[in-house]
Specification:
The protein has six helices and five strands, in the order ααββααβαβαβ. It is an alpha/beta fold.
């Protein structure tokens, strides 16, 4: 009788495989992790990651100021009591989705046909960039409702999938 002896690390790998998280869980956790790098003075933390349909990372981003721009210490919109999503032209920060697309372009990486995972549903400006870049699916957790954003997605055949309740913390 032959006895099969596996190294301990192999046995651990086999037992961990049974508990493996879903790809949706994995990618949204990466987006959450990216959000921790934000430089937004209002405290709003948004993270994004762009992946291929076969689950390979292409690019990522978080909301923050452009390269070389000083990190703000106060948010002019918050100081004036302007609600989130309004008067975006008062803020130098770029959104996480936009930064993820820009980071891919900066490295010469095409995102056409890819998927975007984001902690928050994209605004109208980001949705336009998502459509123009060829991203086909957007997965998000937090609603950020804007009719025009959803309209752009519909016309560009971008599937919007809310992961809230599908994946857990």
């Amino acid at each position: 009788m032959q006895v099969l002896v596996l190294p301990l690390q192999r046995i651990e790998h086999l037992s961990l495989k049974c508990m493996r998280k879903s790809w949706h869980q994995h990618w949204i956790e990466k987006a959450r992790h990216n959000s921790e790098m934000c430089t937004c003075a209002s405290g709003r933390k948004v993270g994004a990651i762009i992946v291929t349909p076969d689950n390979r990372t292409l690019s990522d981003g978080f909301n923050g100021v452009p390269v070389g721009y000083p990190h703000p210490t106060v948010c002019p919109r918050v100081e004036k009591g302007i609600p989130s999503g309004h008067c975006l032209d008062m803020c130098p920060c770029a959104h996480a989705e936009s930064n993820a697309i820009d980071n891919a372009a900066r490295s010469g990486v095409s995102v056409k046909g890819s998927y975007l995972y984001c902690t928050t549903k994209p605004c109208v400006f980001c949705m336009a960039r998502i459509a123009n870049s060829g991203i086909t699916k957007v997965f998000y957790e937090i609603e950020y409702s804007h009719g025009l954003s959803e309209d752009i997605a519909r016309h560009a055949n971008i599937e919007l999938i809310n992961l809230n309740g599908i994946v857990s913390e």
